[in-house]
Amino acid sequence: MQKSSSNALSFFRTIGYAEGISLLILLGIAMPLKYLAGYPLAVKYTGWAHGLLFVAYLSLALWVKEQENWPFKYLINAFLAAFFPFGTFLFDKWLKKHGQA
Predict the structure, then answer these.
(1) What is the pLDDT of residue 7?
(2) 57 alpha carbon, distance to own chain's centre
(3) What is the average pLDDT across 15-35?
(4) Which of 2, 52, 67, 73 sits a CA distance of 20 to 30 A from 58?
(5) What's the CA gap between 36 and 66, in Å, rounded?
C-alpha cells in the first residue's frame, strides 16, 4: 500500500509542476501574444493544455488525500495553490516541509 501511495504522491507532484508551468506560460507568454501581438491561437492551445492539467491536478489532489490520509487542510491548500501563479510550486515546498514529499 505504501508503494502505490508514494507513486500517487509522486505523480501528483509531477502534474503539479506541469500545471504550474502551464499557468505561467499562459499568463506570461500566451496572453501577451494574444493581446499585444494579435495572435489568439496561443491562448487557445495553451489554455486547453492548462485546463486539462488543472483538472488533472485537482482530481489527483482528491485521490492523494485518500491515499495519504491527508488532513482536509492539505486538500484546501492544494486547491488554493492551483489558482495562483507559482502556487503549485509553493504547495510542493510546503508538502516537503511537512514531510509529505
Answers:
(1) 87
(2) 5
(3) 97
(4) 2
(5) 44
101: confidence class by pLDDT, cuts 50, 70, 90: low
Sign, CA dihedral 69-10-89-15, equals: negative
Reported for 46-49, long-range contacts at CB under 8 A and 24+ positions apart, including other chains, are 46/22, 49/22
Q: Which amino acid is at 61?
A: A
Q: Give the integer Cα–Cα distance in Å for 29 and 26.
A: 6
What confidence category does residue 98 fall into, taking pLDDT thresholds of 50, 70 and 90? Answer: confident
pTM (two decimals): 0.88
